[in-house]
Specification:
Chain lengths: 145, 407
């Protein structure tokens, strides 16, 4: 299993081949279109990220101590961003997710989406992922006691 | 003769670069930019004359009070009201409507009565009435619109009954751009004894508005869509009606005498202006109106009409475009969808090209529901927009279409 930092490096390398912002966004849209999406049953109010202009859902499942994420959105750029996040975080242990210091967003030039007021709510997505990780981490620790 | 370049020179923000591209600002329907004259005037008052208005004995207070009241007179002339005491300053259109919903509602709306609005209203002209209806056990009824964006006036026959106490109608729709036949609606409403509030938030900056000619009972608008400051708005109301309405908020300036046993209220317009007003904003609004009047609303309307027609023609050429709102009488708003591309994707990509548009539900969810969409992209024009900017905008849309492989 690759580490969060290794997956981030891969993403940065993929985006590095594009000089123009248009191509970066086109790639993001391609990622969004290619993303499998999620089970309709998981598109619940609970999984809906608040504060986005488009609707974004994140669903988390715990398997063998690791968190697996699925995501979906009705907007493709947002879905592409969500896809990058699930790729980075899916299959990781909650402790690693919580201690991750995300760098790839800045490095691929999407940092403008990080502002908390941005309508596509990248920051809200990351917050949601961390909340899942926090809850999973707490339940793991209580199991160990 | 209208000279757009001369106008643009008064709006330095239009020269700003966004991501290294010159800003193309197509979001004036949300808030317009302010000319230097407005900003300078407010600066001058902040830096040289700032002092609280009304009842001050000293020079500065008098200076600000005079300017505040001169602004009221400017607004009166601007909308052709009979008297400046019919002009009440508020924080904006939304507050103006809430004031009427409360005060008119207290005086005139009872259980079983009806309030009538149109399907294309902004939330600000829906929710205050719903709150009123809940308070008074009254009912909210809706005048629907047709798919082309025009009101279905045929429905008035059965909707306008003597139960209707007030009709709230938007002069120019913030989504569809439709210029509604408010004069006809006012006549029809008056015939059954209903009063009419006209939401002119998207009208006063685009066309001459005359409350006497319309014979509306209330008319509301905001400063910041009229090239003036944010946080200032206007409520016009017929004097005889305002006199019969109780005050909304209590506090300073709205009182005559305060006794613990009983407080009496000030005369119009102060009865409805509790607390320190944003007098410097009001002075800025005065300057904004003078600026618009100096250019001339007839000239602005003619120029914007040409610009809109040119934009509509070009937009229709874009593969996959679906335009919402094609009323015969339409003002400077262009709402659309680009194929099945999500509005936020279109908006995000246009933003990267330096083009500012608004996306989403545009504070008009019922209008979205009418067309069965979750949101739209809206370009709204101001008097400073140019044909060249329309070209850049349409070119940008084609680029978005290409990224999404439309057409």
């Amino acid at each position: 299993m690759k580490t969060i930092a290794e997956i981030e490096r891969e993403i940065v390398d993929e985006f590095a081949i594009f000089d123009e912002w248009v191509d970066k966004y086109a790639y993001l849209i391609e990622i969004g279109s290619g993303l499998e999406g999620m089970d309709e049953a998981h598109k619940t109010e609970e999984n809906l990220i608040k504060g986005c202009q488009s609707r974004v859902w994140f669903h988390a499942e715990m398997k063998d101590g690791r968190l697996y994420f699925t995501a979906d959105s009705d907007a493709l750029i947002t879905k592409g961003i969500a896809g990058l996040l699930t790729r980075v975080f899916s299959g990781q242990v909650p402790g690693d997710i919580l201690s991750a210091d995300l760098k790839f967003i800045d490095e691929i030039g999407l940092e403008q989406h990080l502002s908390p007021t941005r309508s596509n709510g990248l920051l809200s997505m990351i917050k949601q992922i961390r909340m899942y990780a926090l809850a999973a981490d707490a339940s793991l620790k209580s199991e160990m006691k | 003769m209208f000279d757009v370049e001369k106008v643009r020179a008064d709006f330095p923000i239009l020269e700003e670069k966004i991501y290294d591209k010159r800003l193309v600002y197509l979001d004036s329907g949300a808030t317009s930019q302010r000319p230097v004259q407005v900003v300078r005037k407010m600066d001058e008052y902040y830096l040289r004359y700032n002092s609280n208005v009304h009842r001050g004995v000293h020079f500065l207070s008098n200076k600000c009070t005079e300017a505040n009241e001169e602004a009221r007179e400017t607004v009166r002339r601007f909308i052709h009201a009979d008297a400046s005491r019919e002009v009440i300053f508020t924080r904006g259109t939304t507050e103006s409507i809430n004031l009427v919903a409360f005060s008119f509602g207290e005086a005139f709306v009872h259980e079983g009565d009806e309030i009538l609005v149109t399907e294309m209203e902004h939330h600000a002209d829906i929710v205050p009435w719903q709150m009123l209806c809940e308070r008074k056990k009254a009912h909210l009824k809706v005048i629907p619109f047709l798919d082309n964006g025009e009101l279905d006036l045929g429905q008035l026959d059965h909707l306008l009954t003597e139960k209707v106490k007030l009709v709230g109608v938007v002069y120019v729709s913030n989504v569809l751009g439709t210029v509604n036949p408010v004069k006809t609606i006012i006549e029809r409403a008056h015939a059954v004894g209903a009063k009419v509030l006209v939401d002119a938030a998207q009208a006063v900056q685009h066309l001459p508005v005359d409350v006497r000619q319309l014979d509306c009972d209330f008319l509301v608008f905001s400063g910041h869509k009229l090239y003036g400051p944010t946080g200032v708005g206007v409520l016009y109301g017929k004097e005889a009606l305002l006199e019969q309405m109780p005050p909304w908020q209590g506090g300073g300036e709205m009182i005559r005498e305060v006794r613990f046993e009983r407080t009496t209220y000030n005369e119009l317009p102060f009865k409805f202006e509790a607390g320190t007003p944003d007098f410097i904003g009001i002075i800025g609004l005065d300057e904004a109106i003078k600026y618009v009047q100096h250019i001339g609303l007839e000239e602005i309307a003619a120029y914007e009409h040409d610009l809109l027609r040119c934009a509509m023609e070009q937009l229709k050429q874009i593969p996959g475009i679906r335009i919402f709102g094609e009323a015969a009488q339409k003002s400077s708003v262009l709402s659309f969808a680009l194929g099945d591309v999500h509005h936020s994707d279109t908006g995000t990509l246009l933003d990267k090209m330096g083009i500012a548009v608004r996306t989403g539900q545009l504070c008009a969810e019922p209008t979205m529901q009418h067309y069965g969409v979750t949101g739209m992209v809206r370009a709204s024009l101001g008097m400073y927009n140019t044909r060249e900017e329309i070209d850049i905008f349409c070119e940008g849309l084609r680029k978005v279409g290409k990224i999404f492989r439309l057409g």
